[in-house]
Amino acid sequence: MRTKKAIRTSFAAIFILIIAQMIAQSIASLFAVMKLPSGICNIIAGILYLGLTYLILQLFICKIIKLPISGFGMPKLGMKIRWIVIAVLLPFVIKGSYLFLFDGKYVSSNMNEQQIFNTLSAGIAFSGIATGFVEEMVFRGVILNAFKKRWNIKAAVVVPSMLFGIVHVLGQDFSIGSSLFVVIAGTMAGIMFSMIAIEGGSVWNSGIVHAVWNIVMIGGGLAIGEKMDQYSVMTYVLHSKDIAITGGAFGIEASVISLSGYIIVAGIAFFMMKSSKNLV
Fold first, then answer.
1. Tens-place pLDDT, residues 34-87
2. How far apart are CA 42 and CA 215, in angstroms?
3. How far is CA 74 from CA 37, 40, 146, 184, in A?
4. DSSP code, position 225
5. What is the CB neighbour count within 10 angstroms for residue 109?
6. To which H or E segment does residue 9 belong?
7. CA contacts within 13 A on the Cβ side of 56
8. pLDDT tens digits along 190-232
9. Cα–Cα distance between 188 and 182 in angstroms, integer?
């Protein structure tokens, strides 16, 4: 693959993500106008976002790029048990570490049943499952493999991961310190997801890890941070103001605790590849 084609392919994948998200949210909004409950609309938006992204990416890769979609990390759906287990362990161990090791207090947002359903449906269906798998299809599927075909596996892992980290600070009013933590943590999370996708042979493995991470960490159930999160059912408000612990404005996903988790899981994937001689 030529340089221009690899870059165009990468930008096209991001554009498809944006378009699919806009269409999904627009259709869900139409259902809301028809008085369908907001929680159901959130689920519809999530299904549409995931489905549309996959279908458009498939058309783009097969008809425009003229390559099989399996060559971009999206073979027949399947996940390895070990990554399903790690998908559950990673966020729960990190959240558990905060609850057991750092002082804080539980603060309820006092949502009613309908508000709880709306919050959790958005957090699980859209921000969790759909966003987790969509970002993996785009970043660890199309972009990683486009870079791999043009350059090499190292560039394919590092460059898109840095882009993944930078994207998370765009348009945000973060301090320099918070922005730095977000870029570093985002890059390392990107590397972790990349290693999982490569070791597992598809984005479905990194997708399940990403999806479960999003559900547990930002799914609207229990939030952990410096102040109460009005968009979560409950918040564990940390007494610590140390940016390394709290992650600053972005939250604990950018903390050294989470960063350590990313590094450990990436290391596990690396040694699995090395032992199976799947490291190229």
1. 989 999 999 999 999 999 999 999 999 999 999 999 999 999 999 999 999 999
2. 14
3. 33, 28, 13, 27
4. E
5. 17
6. helix 3-33
7. 21
8. 999 999 999 999 999 999 999 999 999 999 999 999 999 999 9
9. 10
